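Cross-check.
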Amino acid sequence: MSHARTGIYEIHDPRFRNLIVSSAALEELYSGCRWAEGPVWFGDHNCLIFSDIPNQRMLRYVPGAGVSTFRSPSNFANGNTRDRAGRLITCEHGGRRVTRTEADGRITVLADRFEGKRLNAPNDVVVRSDGSIWFTDPTYGILSDYEGYQAEPELDTHNVFRLDPATGELSVVVDDFGQPNGLAFSPDEKRLYVADSASSHDETWPSHIRVFDVTEEGRLANGRVFAEIDKGLPDGFRLDLAGNLWTSAADGVHCFAPDGTLLGKILVPQTVANLTFGGERRNRLYITATTSLYAIYVTTTGAQWP
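Predicted model, tokenized:
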């Protein structure tokens, strides 16, 4: 595929030029992580929370004030999001569980077992407007002692789960992924996108993001491939209000149109693990990439709440 290179940008489709600020710099805000992940923006506190998995800590970035420790030890926390009450929801490799941090700092366990068996290692999580919590459960956190505690999986499949907020019932919504990873809803919540990163350990698996229709009953249907990643593999991603999908990759951030067309790339010096929109107008893209936290301004606005 032909493309134009302009500084830190690769333009694969003219529409990408309307999504980026050509003069914006890619800023390295912090370095010193071993594997930076799970960024979530707290607009009401003007801060970003993100994970440094192998270092057993969660960090807080405040614009103009820098980075401080939010939680340590973190139980090998990975993905983070917020629920509709503004509380922090976290996937923990160490405890093989999904937790909620209450307003007073207490930690509530939301899910750690399915049908009596321990979860693998919850990885990434999103909350729908109905309060349901959706998360992926690959085995990365139990493959070794680097990002968790090495153990044999108790479940036969690597699932995407839905947690019902009213009943606490945990259900499998899809179970045929190699390693389900990042996930996000479309702005209208009619589709759920899920990354498969199994090629990290088995090159026979494709590096792609799949998309599913979300039924009125809160189930998934009509799964199909949304986009292929041509450099590395997809990990975490977010959507903007126009439905464009911004995903992590080995060479930076790839932006796809709602129809799956690759619009362009933001080139980043390190392998990107995850990203989120933040800032006062949600038009600043925060990027966790291997050892560092980066940020860059774009012209679009993140779709995720809040």
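The domain at 4-297 is CATH 2.120.10.30 (Neuraminidase). DSSP finds no helices and 28 strands in the chain. Passed to J.P. for a second look.
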